[in-house]
Amino acid sequence: xxxxxxxxxxxxxxxxxxxxxxxxxxxxxxxxxxxxxxxxxxxxxxxxxxxxxxxxxxxxxxxxxxxxxxxxxxxxxxxxxxxxxxxxxxxxxxxxxxxxxxxxxxxxxxxxxxxxxxxxxxxxxxxxxxxxxxxxxxxxxxxxxxxxxxxxxxxxxxxxxxxxxxxxxxxxxxxxxxxxxxxxxxxxxxxxxxxxxxxxxxxxxxxxxxxxxxxxxxxxxxxxxxxxxxxxxxxxxxxxxxxxxxxxxxxxxxxxxxxxxxxxxxxxxxxxxxxxxxxxxxxxxxxxxxxxxxxxxxxxxxxxxxxxxxxxxxxxxx
Length: 318
Hints:
This protein has 12 helices and 10 strands. The chain is an alpha/beta fold and about 325 residues long. Strands 7-6-8-5-9 form a 5-stranded mixed beta sheet. α2 crosses α10, α2 packs across α12 and α4 crosses α5. This is Glycine/betaine ABC transporter substrate-binding protein. GO terms for molecular function: transmembrane transporter activity.
């Protein structure tokens, strides 16, 4: 996700349909999944005692990853509470800085772009080093996983057919077409470097208009499917891409950078045992696995907490 994404990955609301929208809502209301904390996620209270507060942004994949982190910590006997489905990076970063959240699933390159929009992203190592250097001193990044989920500009099947766009087509191929297209995405995508700002400055794309929807979630997916928008910010591990025959456009200039799933941590709130537990999760999580887990939640309507527990058990971390 560009989180500014992978937008926050940019910040998506990955729910693949009503099922995941329901899962996210249920998590928020503490009816199922991770949310055993019914307090206002924006209230900003610090965790009590030795409780580790695991937060998530407002999209399904983030909620799932938070469940994975939280349950991995619980397996080590660490007390955990959850603040799920909070909002975008613009909100959650502040809650991390003041200690209201202890752990948050992040996307390294997207986080760096948020902290320093002009930072170059040449390698995983340099991205993480640069992000750590820009972080508030109370925060740190743990080990990145091989799993990546990037923002993308994706077109629907109708648009792809009309303009002869394929999986090999690039964002540059939209330059003459963009004035005829409505682009959809989260409100933040409109003002982010890893969003419309970068699409214009890097690729020269000027779209007909922008429609504010959600962060890659059911609103964006539905608008793209119905052709209300012809292009949209969709996250690359979104299973609806294959289901709806959407076409993801290549990003040869690497505007959307790196987007490795990485725990962002309030340092004083997590023990070394907790650090080790989350690093062990990162070592086991790859992109293929993440897509499979996302599909279980978004297409099969499984509870993200159940999916998290089953996967952790399968890799010896539950």
